[in-house]
Write a structure and sequence with these properties.
Helix content: 25-40%
Distance between the termini: 42 Å
CATH topology of the largest domain: pyruvate-formate lyase- activating enzyme
Radius of gyration: 22 Å
Number of strands: 20
Strand content: 15-25%
């Protein structure tokens, strides 16, 4: 029997990845066949992002490329870009359907309406990359903070937390499928609250009621880091990696951004993490060229990042987003200046990452291997150092001790004693 073939692409955050994974699992269970490429698909689904104008452009380009490569495939655009401007994507040649964030859960119904009914019984197709290794699980959605630069509250305005029982059941289901690491994600997971259960309470229950090998959090805000939460990292199944949003290391810029903290709060959170979890990786996001950012303010931000010693820094040039307060601010920074500031911050990011990686050279640490490319395997330590090695064996989804030997590419080269 031939099952409808579906290909997914995802842009943007870990929450988008979690939602795509959830949809893929639902479709596979219903009898659809998941394929790797639009070239072999009957249906192509793109989960879009609109956090920057570059993300918008990537979404449009991927849809156009999909139509050129396979004109017979039905194209569906879903997600945040659709939520912000459905007409822009609906006008692209070949796009049959656009679904905003509230409608994502109805993908299965809409596929039937397009003439692609599921099999009469589950086909049991492989979930491919969704079936093993690291799995993303949505526990929360929505934000009402309205930082002045951010479009997310406009496209994810409904704030809700997934019941703890459902989270625990989903973790168990993924474990049954061979998953060893679950990443809990959301728009603002530190705000998780459902039926009296906080994020700390949820973590306690997941750790107590499941045997998951690794549990990782996607992102926190500095005010959400407190002693009761950090106590939980005594359980070594919680990965020692904390992604703390920064955006700027200048208090004046943070104020214009309408962030919920200042640099002193951020320093306190970092100090608390490093005291409680000494090997922790602290990663962050930084925006360069926010409206009105002076050279002195950029230097403040650069100096703060250098002093903090991040394990990773994701650097973005400021992008005007329609409908946000910052888009209408005076003194927009020119593209040339933004590019130069991004270049400097990226150089610092590379230096900081190497400094962090070098701290662990010579140590043997567990690595969860994920994929092979060009004869080289890659995977991650619990504190999110990317490790590479060569092996003729299939290391997919294997967790094994590896000696970290030298800095290599964006991570380190490791040696497993039985290679």
């Amino acid at each position: 029997m031939s099952y409808p073939r579906v290909a997914f692409d995802t842009l943007g955050c870990k929450l988008n990845q979690a939602e795509t994974e959830s949809m893929a699992r639902e479709l596979a269970a219903a009898g659809y066949e998941l394929v790797d490429s639009v070239d072999e698909a009957d249906v192509y689904i793109l989960n879009t992002c609109t956090v920057t104008h570059i993300a918008d452009r990537k979404s449009r380009n991927l849809l156009r490329q999909a139509h050129r490569r396979n004109g017979a495939a039905r194209l569906i655009a879903i997600g945040c870009y659709v939520e912000r401007s459905p007409q822009e994507l609906a006008r692209i040649e070949g796009v049959d359907l656009v679904l905003g964030n509230e409608q994502k859960a109805r993908v299965l119904d809409r596929l039937r309406e397009l003439g692609f009914p599921a099999a009469s019984s589950p086909g049991g197709q492989s979930l491919r990359e969704y079936g093993r290794g690291r799995s993303f699980l949505k526990i929360q959605d929505g934000c009402r903070n309205f930082c002045s630069y951010c479009i997310v509250p406009l496209v994810r305005s409904r704030v809700e937390s997934v019941p703890a029982e459902r989270v625990i059941a989903e973790v168990k289901k993924r474990m049954d499928g061979g998953v060893k690491e679950v990443v809990l994600t959301g728009t603002e997971i530190g705000a998780y609250h459902r039926s009296g259960v906080s994020l700390a309470g949820l973590l306690k229950r997941v750790l107590a009621e499941t045997g998951i090998t690794r549990l990782r959090l996607s992102s926190l805000q500095p005010p959400e880091v407190f002693a009761e939460l950090l106590e939980l990292w005594k359980d070594d199944r919680l990965c020692p990696q904390f992604h703390l949003s920064l955006q700027s290391g200048s208090d004046a810029v943070l104020q214009r951004m309408k962030r919920c903290y200042q640099t002193a709060d951020y320093r306190r959170a970092v100090a608390a993490i490093r005291k409680a979890v000494p090997d922790a990786a602290i990663t962050s996001d930084v925006i360069a060229g926010f409206p009105g950012e002076t050279e002195a303010e950029f230097k403040e931000s650069y100096g703060f990042c250098r002093q903090t010693g991040f394990a990773r820094i994701h650097v973005f040039p400021y992008s005007q987003r329609p409908g946000t307060e910052a888009a209408a601010m005076p003194e927009q920074v020119g593209d040339r200046v933004k590019r130069e500031r991004v270049r400097k911050m990226l150089a610092l990011a590379g230096e900081s990452a190497r400094d962090f990686q070098q701290r662990f050279l010579g140590r043997t640490m567990p690595v969860l291997w994920e994929q092979k490319s060009g004869g080289v395997w890659s995977g991650y330590t619990a504190n999110y150092i990317r490790v590479y090695t060569k092996s003729d064996n299939d290391l997919t989804n294997q967790l094994m001790p590896v000696k970290l030997e030298s800095v290599y590419k964006d991570g380190v080269w490791g040696r497993w004693s039985n290679l």
